[in-house]
């Protein structure tokens, strides 16, 4: 536990070391927040509600999602894949610490940094310009739990697609396709609630909804009581499944690992 | 100019050959790029699953805007690249090498980031264009054809100029490479939608001052024969080439100014 904490601190520090990258990213998230907010507000000129979201829900969704992008690290993550490709993974495996546990601790140290410094500024900006919805104290607490699980689900999936590098020499296509799947099925590009009914139900069953849509639903008070416990339970289940899958892949790969020139 | 084209072709050719070395991974890469750029159009379709018009715009009209923005973005990306790798050169001091070579600095930078997989975006833009045209009954006059044909290279020049100015930020903030994403992806996303959906201040700032409205909104109004929902003078529909020329001048001057302020990291 002490070790995990130390690794997590390094995850935080690594990203804190580049303040301008944080400013640049928050700027970009804000631009996208404004574009998407205005586009969805134009949609709501024709409809009062879509899939249980009113206009203020949708705009809140936009700013929350922009704020969560980096916290849940929705874009491509390559770190493990690069270490496999250049052979550094051999050193990692020789350490008395499991690589998956290492990267998870690192990621859980990184996420709060991105939440505070990449997430908060665009959200505050959005809140100053638009009318947003805010959670009840209980929902706010549930949101924090759900967001933490979102990071773990996202990490679990990132670890799985990075493992492809054990089998493929060039893994770029796999990473791009996996990123595409997360962006679309998590509701990052547009809320899942806007999809046709069957697709919406499918998305809610898949793990990716737990990365963006579920925490936002909770923030907006769309999940109460048993339903709230249900969606958090589903996130937890997917987190365990994906972490488990990552473990299996890592164990398989370790048995047949050949390090070129290592 | 002839020399610039020659250098660009030489440098790009070398990159294409290296990228085609691994056929399988190239195919996967193109496939991945295709779908990740296609998400934006799925968003448009999802919006129109819920409404039949966005302000006064039908799905095919928005698809037309989307296709123009997407295709011109793709060509800009092929010609000059994303400019998101070169901040790394500034950080590690490798920009020094660019400075001592007897060719233009901007030329060397834009020719060093060519990725064949970006053809996938041209493909998806073209598919959307076919979809848009299939649902539109455009009365093709000589004027409309001319405006469309002139607006495409103009759009590429405007996009390119905006990206170059955005990339210049890297000379002052060595780790601020992500600024470029706001200008590249942000710019194309904005141009994919009709400008009357945006708030007035955003339209003024990013539509006219940063002239993204001239990328495809104004030319598209003319080609589609739509009245401007914003009631602006129709002369604007024909201004894209002039705006492109002005933008290119601003970008060139900004780049010169920025390069003069380059401080080597001592690489």
Describe the structure.
The complex is a heterodimer of chains A (262) and B (267). With 262 residues, chain A is mainly alpha-helical. Chain A has one domain (2-255). Chain A has eleven helices and no strands. Chain A has helices at residues 2-16, 19-43, 55-68, 79-85, 89-94, 99-129, 137-162, 172-185, 197-205, 213-219, 225-255. The mean pLDDT of chain A is 92. Chain B has 267 residues and is an all-alpha fold. Chain B has one domain (2-8, 23-260). Chain B is built from twelve helices and no strands. Chain B has helices at 2-19, 23-50, 59-80, 86-91, 95-100, 105-111, 119-135, 142-168, 179-191, 200-209, 217-224, 240-260. In chain B, helix 1 packs parallel to helix 6, helix 2 (23-50) packs parallel to helix 7 (119-135) and helix 8 runs parallel beside helix 12 (240-260). The longest helix of chain B is centred in the first third of the chain and has 28 residues, at 23-50. Chains A and B meet through helix 2 and helix 8 of A and helix 2 and helix 9 of B.
| Shape label of chain A | globular
Q: Largest sheet of chain A, if any?
A: none
Please give the share of residues in helix of chain B. Answer: 55-70%
Which two chains touch over the largest interface? A-B, 40 and 44 residues
Instruction: Give the biggest beta sheet of chain B.
Output: none
How many individual domains of chain B?
1
In short:
The complex is a heterodimer of chains A (262) and B (267). Chain A is mainly α.
List the helices and strands and how they pair.
The complex is a heterodimer of chains A (262) and B (267).
Chain A: H1 2-16, H2 19-43, H3 55-68, H4 79-85, H5 89-94, H6 99-129, H7 137-162, H8 172-185, H9 197-205, H10 213-219, H11 225-255
Chain B: H1 2-19, H2 23-50, H3 59-80, H4 86-91, H5 95-100, H6 105-111, H7 119-135, H8 142-168, H9 179-191, H10 200-209, H11 217-224, H12 240-260
Helix pairs in contact in B: 1-6, 2-3, 2-7, 3-7, 3-8, 3-9, 8-9, 8-11, 8-12
